[in-house]
Amino acid sequence: MPAIVMSNAGSNGAKKFEGKITIYVVICGVIAATGGLMFGYDIGISGGVTSMDDFLEEFFPVVYERKHKAKEDNYCKYDNQGLQLFTSSLYLAALVSSFVASKVCTKHGRRLTMQAASVFFLIGVVLNAAARNIAMLIIGRILLGVGVGFANQAVPLFLSEIAPVHIRGALNILFQLDVTIGIFVANIVNYFVSNIHPWGWRLALGLAGVPATMLCLGSMVIAETPTSLIEREQLMEGLAMLKKIRGTDNVNAEYEEILHACEMARQVKRPFRNLMKRSSRPQLVIAIAMQVFQQFTGINAIMFYAPVLFQTIGFKNDASLLSAVITGIVNVLSTVVSVVLVDKLGRRFLLLEACGQMLITQVAIGGVLLVNLKSTNELEHGVAVWVVVLVCLFVSSFAWSWGPLGWLIPSETFPLATRTAGYAFAVSSNMLFTFVIAQAFLSMMCHLRAGIFFFFAAWIVVMGLFVIFLLPETKNVPIDEMSERVWKRHWFWKRFMDEEEQDKKDSV
Ligand code: BGC
């Protein structure tokens, strides 16, 4: 079914590209998105493993003992820096490696970057599953992190570059959809392996090898993107690949445009330096803010520690993992909602609706726990069920807003010259603040107690104001018309854009 679609690249918006949604493009997209599965599986698995007795007894005996003390403080059971380092070391490694990955991506292509990601990840999986001491655990997690850093840089870029322009948004959110599926699968695995003694946790960590193997084998059969081939001056291969993934020989307009974009990008010798100029400020601030705010919703306090959290507030082991499975399902289904609605209702609507829903649910969870959960009592069953319901309402609003849009908006706001470097910044900001939350959350819960939920609620107010005043709507705006149609017309950001022309002259 050939589809004639509006180019999103021409400044007059009138050029047309011809392209089908070919089976090949769909297969390439599905395979590449398994990088999101790796990321999601990691997010989901560490919380489950760190609440398994066999694992704690072997590596964190102090935590194990405290966990089983009769009168333990409800809010402080698992506060242990070593245990938090297990979870968060991955994100620190991913933060550093995403900068390296952006260079590898440009020099050697997206496909090789994805292959490298799967290899690092697989070695990390082997070390983790076979771990005999904490060093093996942490080194394994670091290698997983390098894999995630490489995959998160290459996969969204790959998806955007191979997608026909009219399904680019949907293909971009496929990455987030796979993240949520990964988290969900990990929650199910946690649930079942927690009853396999004493090596269930090894199985849980080892199964991370499945998505990595899929990506490793899959990346041998998928295409390199035409943009990356042309960028690396393999013009004929780029043209042939473009014809193959579009399912038509009539690709000249798109080919010319990629060629032009690559030439423009080549003129900017130092994209990272360019990014620091005043005229890049609006996009850079938005890209970083979207990621920082995404993490300060408190989502990963729930995702990493859902089993621990539910256990902390009085669920038994299996019940807490089951609750985490339920939140996992809600997360996946609500992401599908985003795929359907994002281009109809717009980014700002989804983000603002979610701010309202997240604010109410965080305050309600905090309130319920403040009243009902003291240091050493247990929550009544009915109250605990309410907490799960509130958590689900919180997760659903995140999943159709800040989750996917945290990745989508930074990918559509930068002009081409700084797009890759800017995106690397967005990825690493995500990792940095994921690390901060992962490292700090359990200690914060120990000190702030139920107040932790009010802490996140306060951030949600800040991000709501940010969206109202500073985030322009980018729905249906062609990507290369952003400067003219969005930034130069925005009441606040336009003052930075006046210098754009001067900066352009400086950088050539
Ligand atoms: C975020 C992760 C989060 C996940 C939840 C992603 O977009 O980057 O930090 O755990 O969504 O689904």
From TrEMBL:
Pfam families associated with the record: Sugar_tr (PF00083)
List, alphabetically, the PROSITE patterns matched. Answer: MFS, SUGAR_TRANSPORT_1, SUGAR_TRANSPORT_2
Question: What coarse category fits the chief subcellular location reported for this protein?
Answer: membrane
**Cellular location(s):** Membrane
Molecular function as annotated in GO = monosaccharide transmembrane transporter activity; symporter activity
Question: Which topology term describes how it sits in the membrane?
Answer: Multi-pass membrane protein
In terms of InterPro entries, this protein maps to:
MFS_dom, MFS_STP/MST-like_plant, MFS_sugar_transport-like, MFS_trans_sf, STP/PLT_plant, Sugar/inositol_transpt, Sugar_transporter_CS
Q: Which residues form the Major facilitator superfamily (MFS) profile domain?
A: 28-475
**NCBIfam families associated with the record:** SP (TIGR00879)
* Claim: Transmembrane is one of the keywords in the record: yes
Q: Which domain of life is it from?
A: Eukaryota
Show the stretches that span the lipid bilayer.
21-41, 82-100, 112-131, 137-159, 171-193, 199-223, 284-308, 320-342, 349-371, 383-409, 421-442, 448-471
Keywords assigned by UniProt? Membrane, Sugar transport, Symport, Transmembrane, Transmembrane helix, Transport
State the name under which the record lists this protein.
Answer: Sugar transport protein
Annotated family:
Belongs to the major facilitator superfamily. Sugar transporter (TC 2.A.1.1) family.
CDD domains named among the record's database cross-references: MFS_STP
Any one annotated GO CC term: membrane
PANTHER family named among the record's database cross-references: OS07G0206600 PROTEIN, SOLUTE CARRIER FAMILY 2, FACILITATED GLUCOSE TRANSPORTER
